Fold each of these.
Amino acid sequence: MQHWTDRDRENKLFFCQVEALETLIFLTEAAEKVGDNWIKTWLGEVNAASNPGLNRIAMKMATGTGKTVVMAMLIAWHALNKIANPKDSRFSDTFLVVTPGITIRDRLKVEGDSHQIWRVWRIRSGEHREYK
């Protein structure tokens, strides 16, 4: 979060992007620790009822608020946490991104010539840029 909320960032994030990310990180890392077990329990029940074995969480954000950037930050956060804690089942190193068209898909490319979202929005800090 320090990297993404740095006041000296060239491309500052919208408050709603930061809040979306903070909410998802809270649900993953802190909710149970601070007594908000009902959230994780309810999400687990809903996920188990609709698609067992596939944990899904969604954020509702308006058009133009930077959902693609939030998705990229979440992927980076998950991947870096999985690298640091390989046995922690809360994190993943495998991602399936389904996009509504080639525009969003092209923004998220990691390989090849198109590193737009990763470079322009500085999703990964300097020390983590070698991870792909």
Amino acid sequence: MASVTFPPALGGDGSTVTDDTNATTGLANGGHRARFVPSLGQAVAVMSGAVSQAGASAGAAAASQSAAAASAASAVNAPGTSATSTSSLVVGTGSKSLTVQTGKAFVVGQPVMIADSANPSLNWMAGNITAYTSGTGALVVDAVWIRGSGTIASWVVSLSAPANPAAVSRAGDTMTGALNWATTTTVASAATVDLSTTTNTVNVTGTVTITSLGTVAAGAHRLVTFAGALTLTHNATSLILPGSANILTAAGDSAEFLSLGSGNWKCTAYLPAVGQIATQAEAQAGTATNRIMTPLAVAQAVQYQQSPMVLYNLGII
């Protein structure tokens, strides 16, 4: 037996119809003459009630969405310890003045972070609040930690961990103690010795000619010691060497390299190993590009290369 009940919750009258011969609810044996048309009316009433309730639910959902949006806006504009600002500021240390929402709960001494709303992990400043005027939204922060650079005009201000005044700022500062480098990295010589993967001090083994030192941010320094004889190939752009000439290293020689960025390096100092004094033959031949030249060796080289008249004018003979 099948039956249908028309629930009052959806607009029905609570009645039930069945497909049997029940004298009260059945549609069989002529029962449809008395009950079929009323049941159709109840079906229409229930469907109308269902549509009405669906519309009401949709309206409630829209109202909830509007309430959520209003709550989000209130979170920014109501008193609290987070805010936004469109003040144009240059990323850097020192006093930073900006305008945020009024009525915030900021107080002097609170540590806050001022972060770029578009790139909060790349550009930010952190420090303690030195002044806040609730009525105008004027906020002043003494930034002691920073990251990134540039002028930005869209900020998010929020509480942060306390700024440590003893920490060294990324944007220049004076250390009161030593900065100890990590242990020396040893790498094998190759056409490209990638100094981007090493520590500040590097030991190069092998005898393969070096033409490149990899790509590191401009300003990086590396102190390199050579374990054997190899050739450093001069390049006027990518590997600038003293005297604009190739250098033949010897075991124990060391050099300091400065990154110019974009894969370009400059050797700012080259120190031959102790005892690596140029011989007279090396001095005269001009092959001692990585050797210490004694005054005697210099005089001998000049004497070998110049005419007697030039040597006489120089006071050598």
